[in-house]
Amino acid sequence: MRVKVFAALLLMGCLAVPSLAAMSFTNRLTSEPGLSPDLEEADAVTADKDILYSAAGAQIGLNLLGNDGRNHIHSTANDFNTVDFVAEVTVDYSTGGRMFMGLGGGEIGAYGTPDWDITDTVWLELGQYGLSNTFTYNVGDGGPNGPIGAGISVAGPEVRVQMSFDSATSTITFAIDDAYVGGPMTADFIVPAIDMSAFFTAGEDARVFIGGGSGVIVRDLAVAVVPEPASLALLGIGGLLVSRRRK
């Protein structure tokens, strides 16, 4: 009886703890209605920023090449700076283009780039055969900080990009699998960990976002949130109690 009561109290306690909005999800990025509930477009109004969805993925900026055709797809959850997560996406340069992947407001800022002029943000900019790099922006600094580290030029035509965030140290790391052919990614390039401890301090949105322009295709987005040790411990205790009760 004691075990039963304790298990019930434990369950009530777990339910009482508010769950974070940031959760794991996957998306093939093959349809706009299929983005919901985890994702949404940054600009769903301006016609020249239309994103074309097909079996190949989401093609961005084909209707209007250059800066004006850039758009982004971002997570609806805006607290990804509070959890450990790993996000990956495949980038297809078969029709050219340039992509962005990062953590921040996930909206479109000046020149069609991620919102460096709106909220705190960090992103990797990656173009086939072109100089690519990583940028950060901390509101109040007066402009984007970067590029950070050496430029990266990928051969493609497909690459897999990974973004990892460690909430305990507030660091973010990017890795790139060049000439990706499917399956688990292998890092050919790694951008050293970036300290984000001074970012998102005023409650700015921290969404996972991907975007780009000039016809780049992105697909097979996967975001994996790593459970906190405390949560795992509670789940373990609950499992033991259930097991003991059945015995």
Number of strands: 15
Shape: globular
Low-confidence stretches: 2-19, 230-247
| Helix-strand string | HEEEEEEEEEEEEEEEH
Structural class: mainly beta
How far the N terminus sits from the C terminus, by CA atoms, comes to 13 Å
Tally of helical runs: 2
User: Main beta sheet: strand number and arrangement?
Assistant: 8 strands, antiparallel
Helical amount: 10-25%
Radius of gyration: 20 Å
The proportion of residues in beta strands is 35-45%
Oligomeric state as shown = single chain
Mean pLDDT: 81
Description:
- This protein has 247 residues and is mainly β.
- It has helices at residues 2-16, 229-246, and strands at residues 25-27, 39-41, 51-54, 57-60, 71-75, 84-92, 98-104, 121-127, 132-137, 145-152, 158-166, 171-177, 189-195, 207-213, 216-226.
- Strands 1, 3, 4, 6, 11, 12, 13 and 15 form an 8-stranded antiparallel sheet that branches. The chain has a 7-stranded antiparallel sheet with strand order 2-5-14-7-8-9-10, with no helix packed on it.
- Helix 1 runs antiparallel to helix 2 (229-246).
- It is globular, with a radius of gyration of 20 Å.
- Mean pLDDT is 81; it is low at 2-19 and 230-247.
